[in-house]
Write a structure and sequence with these properties.
Layout lengths: L1 H15 L13 E6 L13 E10 L4 E4 H4 L3 E4 L7 H6 L8 E6 L20 E11 L6 E6 L13 E10 L4 E4 H4 L3 E4 L7 H6 L8 E6 L20 E11 L6 E6 L13 E10 L4 E4 L7 E4 L7 H6 L8 E6 L20 E11 L6 E6 L13 E10 L4 E4 L7 E4 L7 H6 L8 E6 L19 E11 L4 H10 L4 H4 L14
The protein binds 2-acetamido-2-deoxy-beta-D-glucopyranose (8 copies).
Catalytic activity: [protein]-peptidylproline (omega=180) = [protein]-peptidylproline (omega=0)
Function: PPIases accelerate the folding of proteins during protein synthesis.
Enzyme class: isomerase
Length: 506
């Protein structure tokens, strides 16, 4: 009993200072802690399971046993009388990665009988020990957050699907696996038995961007069997996990309105054709695609499956100028296969969408009269020579042309195909001094290809004022007029413009 106290005292006092190696001044069991690691989270105690390498020698240095010769580190339970008494005592208070030498006198070793042909009677034994692992049946999965992201709207729950990077090490620091070497995340359901029990527990509550340290005792990992050649039996596992992605297989898209314009007379519906800019990012904020780098909007029909289902849904109910953020689970994006090198399998995608304009192929010219003189007896019609001023803008207000620049009064004979169809239509039925605000869909404007300064498929807004007109210009005069009034450069570009759909009469 007295010896026990001596050993206990020396080990605890020694371990509280990891600086020096305490000198062994011992009666019976002599312990030399010749290497103590700087960090020692816990020390072995009675009731703990331990895993260690050892070389056993006689006092003269001759080896009679070694875990290395046996192939595997030894797994043992302390304080239950299953070990040689001297060893059981000598292994207490030990840190993982500590190395110590334990000298066991015969009466705490194999005594006066010895052990078969291997250990002669009354042998003093010297054990060189390297501790690899300590755990206890009462251990829990221990998690420690290393970094927390700034905002965390959602954290891992059971039945969620996650993608994470990890480094997996044994308690002694040996790396047994890492997602980084494979250059791809580990993708799995949580709480559904796809993972070892301890990992299913340890991932709960994690946020995307969080780095967490998870320590899993062997009975919640691979237990007695271990796994493959990398994970030995009864190994505690340490995971450093970086959560990259998170969703639930039942998720729908989530929509967040970023900017909603004050006035919105019309919202997108299925069948509309939309032009929008977007930034596409992953949940961790990394951009995988953006329309801005191409200097042109992304253009598509809505609700016809031309884009991934999640975006198709997100494009509904939008106003011109609106900004919307949509978060799309993989089943409504690129699914389990991902897309090329750009989208990894099972990735959640976030799109910030900015609507530039939209129209419907059924749209006609939208004419709003903003000023009409009281007396308006005569109005313009086909074959009339009309003179007018106008400003042309995109729907976001970007000015494309103004006839006021250089006082450039416009003139055209209606129905001669000299201006875009939408403008020709909008100039009919006008009286002198009348003003109109006209919205022209691209199929009555510059079509899919656009024109210099006019983006393809752009909706145009014309602010028109009729200055004067001459009725029914005869064909002969028209020829002369055309020679004297060549169509201006801006309008000349329309003549061969592509039409998205055949023109419909107003
Ligand atoms: C035991 O001997 C081997 C070489 O035979 C050596 O690598 C090891 O460090 C020694 N000590 C322990 C505790 O394994
Ligand atoms: C995993 O190890 C690599 C290389 O040491 C390191 O760059 C990375 O940050 C580690 N990951 C985590 C989640 O700790
Ligand atoms: C997702 O959307 C579908 C169809 O719109 C609906 O039936 C389902 O209940 C939604 N699921 C959730 C979790 O909101
Ligand atoms: C255009 O109008 C017709 C008739 O109202 C309708 O059947 C068709 O779906 C519309 N097309 C689009 C693209 O909305
Ligand atoms: C986009 O426009 C910018 C500025 O006008 C220019 O520097 C860049 O080269 C353009 N990029 C492409 C892909 O056309
Ligand atoms: C996309 O990102 C750029 C650069 O960060 C930003 O200027 C632009 O407003 C973003 N667009 C949307 C639709 O959020
Ligand atoms: C319009 O018609 C009315 C009567 O029909 C006539 O009095 C008036 O002078 C006409 N105005 C113009 C500008 O022709
Ligand atoms: C066009 O813009 C100018 C100012 O740039 C403005 O004076 C004029 O009233 C606008 N409308 C028309 C039809 O020209």
């Amino acid at each position: 009993m007295f010896l026990c106290y001596v050993v206990f005292f020396l080990l605890t006092s020694g371990s509280s200072s990891v600086e020096g190696n305490p000198s062994p001044v011992l009666g019976d069991v002599v312990v030399d802690r010749y290497f103590i690691p700087k960090i020692c989270v816990r020390e072995s105690k009675s009731g703990d399971h331990i895993r260690y390498h050892y070389n056993a020698t006689f006092a003269d240095g001759k080896t009679f046993d070694s875990s290395h010769q046996r192939g595997d580190a030894k797994v043992a339970l302390l304080g239950e009388g299953r070990l040689l008494e001297g060893i059981d005592r000598g292994l207490r208070g030990m840190c993982v990665n500590e190395r110590r030498s334990i000298t066991v006198p015969p009466h705490l070793g194999y005594g006066s009988t010895g052990a078969g042909k291997v250990v002669p009677p009354d042998s003093t034994l010297v054990f060189d020990i390297h501790l690899l692992d300590v755990w206890n049946q009462a251990d829990l999965v221990v998690t420690k957050t290393v970094t927390t992201p700034k905002d965390c709207k959602r954290s891992v729950m059971r039945t969620d699907f996650v993608r994470y990077h990890f480094n997996g090490t044994l308690l002694d620091g040996t790396v047994f696996d890492s997602s980084y070497t494979r250059k791809q995340t580990h993708n799995t359901l949580v709480g559904e038995g796809w993972l070892v029990k301890g990992m299913d527990e340890g991932l709960l509550g994690m946020c995307v961007g969080e780095i967490r340290n998870i320590v899993i005792p062997p009975f919640k990992a691979y237990g007695e069997k271990g796994s493959g050649s990398e994970i030995p039996p009864q190994a505690t596992l340490v995971f450093d996990v970086l959560l990259v992605d998170l969703h639930n297989p039942k998720d729908n898209i989530t929509v967040e309105e970023l900017v909603v314009p004050d006035t919105c007379t019309r919202r997108t519906v299925a069948g509309d054709y939309i032009r929008y800019h977007y930034n596409g990012t992953f949940l961790n904020g990394v951009t995988f695609d953006t329309s801005y780098q191409r200097n042109s909007t992304y253009n598509t029909y809505i609700g016809m499956g031309y884009v991934i289902p999640g975006v198709d849904q997100a494009l509904l109910g939008l106003c011109t100028g609106q900004k919307r953020r949509v978060t799309i689970p993989p089943r409504l994006a690129y699914g389990e296969n991902g897309a090329g090198d750009v989208i990894p399998p099972s990735a959640v995608l976030v799109f910030d969408i900015h609507v530039i304009d939209f129209h419907n192929p059924n749209d006609t010219v939208d004419i709003r009269t903003t000023y009409r003189p009281e007396s308006c007896n005569e109005t313009t019609k086909e074959n009339d020579l009309v003179r007018y001023h106008y400003n042309c803008t995109l729907v976001d207000g970007t000015l494309l042309f103004s006839s006021h620049d250089d006082d450039n009064l416009q003139s055209v004979v209606l129905g001669t195909d000299k201006v875009i169809d939408g403008l020709d239509l909008a100039l009919r039925g006008m009286c002198v001094e009348e003003k109109r605000l006209v919205t022209v869909p691209p199929h009555l404007g510059h079509g899919e290809n656009g024109a210099t300064g006019v983006p393809g498929s752009a909706v145009l807004v014309f602010d028109i004022e009729l200055v004067s007109f001459e009725k029914g210009v005869p064909p002969g005069y028209l020829f002369v007029w055309l020679q004297e009034n060549p169509p201006n450069l801006f309008e000349a570009l329309d003549i061969n413009s592509n039409k998205e759909v055949p023109q419909e009469e107003v």
